[in-house]
Amino acid sequence: MNPFIFSQASDVDAALARLAAGARPIAGGTNLLDLVKEGVLQPGELVDINRLGLDRIEPAEGGGLRLGALARNADTAYHPLVRERYPLLSAAILAGASPQLRNMATNGGNLLQRTRCYYFYDLGTPCNKRAPGSGCSAREGLNRLHAILGTSEHCIATHPSDMCVALRALDAVVHVRTQGTGQQERSIPFADFHRLPGDQPERDTTLEPGELVTHITLPDAGRFSRHSTYLKVRERLSYAFALVSVAAALDIEDGRIRAARIALGGVAHKPWRVEEAEAALEGMAPGHDAFGVAADIVLRGARGFGQNDFKLTLARNAIEQALGTAARGTDHAKGEAR
């Protein structure tokens, strides 16, 4: 293992000072430590940020919710306010990883986890995300798990998170701080937080060096709480990343859809959402025909790379199934669709 310095920060100012000096933050470490052990990441310093007090989950202005970056995924999924107001988010978190990992992983870390592309972790193969300019082995290699939307000639990796798919559907906002004259703060709409690969696949997010995620805010989503679901299609029942996942939420009144939210995971370098598809459902009666129109719009421009061609059909079927399940209603007692 590459030697590195390990330090602990007692407050946000101390953490930002270390980040400004080039340290990387570590909280749960459920992905970061894998990257270090595999040699993909060779940090000069890791700074423990678990003592910063950024773990609260509490109401926000306007009926929304504030999720601390250091709140554990399990605590977030089972929090009464999340289960009641945002059952879609609770279901998405519980679909990910394993209970042991959810007990350790933090909300901020979930946003920053990196792709599970085989070639990214294999130091013996070319990977533009790991070594820019070396090439993308997945395009002509093992690409069953890879992207069908938003790809570039430089990268076809997918974003691995389940939680992030729900956050994208729910119009979350990521709040960050950096060191400066006082603490500099900015808010990043979730749509702008993760990047498509373009010609810089090594950059997963729009975070700048030295910035620290402090919390995530969600707007009031009460109108969607009665009709939402998270559908995850994977190769085994647990501890597997999505082939395709869909976060779907509907606002239905008098048999018509007033508003819709659709976000996909497992298909792109970031959670994938096409607002045009949601607008197409407004005023429509829930049903197969309407959901098929939305699916066509979401998947416009999708293409496979051989082994993952099946995702084109799978994604369409998953969108239609998720929307149908959401239309039938959400079971608040379990935070799941029935």
List the SSEs and their pairings.
Blueprint: E1 5-8, H1 12-20, E2 24-26, H2 32-38, E3 45-48, E4 57-59, E5 65-68, H3 73-78, H4 80-85, H5 87-94, H6 99-104, H7 107-112, H8 118-121, H9 163-169, E6 173-180, E7 182-189, H10 190-193, E8 212-218, E9 228-233, E10 244-253, E11 256-265, H11 275-281, H12 288-298, H13 310-328, E12 330-331, E13 336-337
Parallel strand pairs: 1-3, 2-3
Antiparallel strand pairs: 4-5, 5-8, 6-7, 6-8, 9-10, 10-11, 12-13
Polypeptide structure, described:
The protein has 338 residues and is of the alpha+beta class. It is 30% helix and 21% strand. The protein has 13 helices and 13 strands. The strands form four sheets. Strands 4-5-8-6-7 form a five-stranded antiparallel β-sheet. α12 packs across α13. It is globular, with a radius of gyration of 20 Å. It starts with a strand and ends with a strand. The model has no long low-confidence stretch (mean pLDDT 96).
Strand content: 15-25%
Largest sheet: 5 strands, antiparallel
Q: Tell me the distance between the termini.
A: 48 Å
Helix tally equals 13
Defining key terms:
single chain; alpha+beta; five-stranded antiparallel beta sheet; three-stranded parallel beta sheet; 21% strand
What's this, in brief?
This protein is an alpha+beta fold. The protein has helices at 12-20, 32-38, 73-78, 80-85, 87-94, 99-104, 107-112, 118-121, 163-169, 190-193, 275-281, 288-298, 310-328; strands at 5-8, 24-26, 45-48, 57-59, 65-68, 173-180, 182-189, 212-218, 228-233, 244-253, 256-265, 330-331, 336-337.
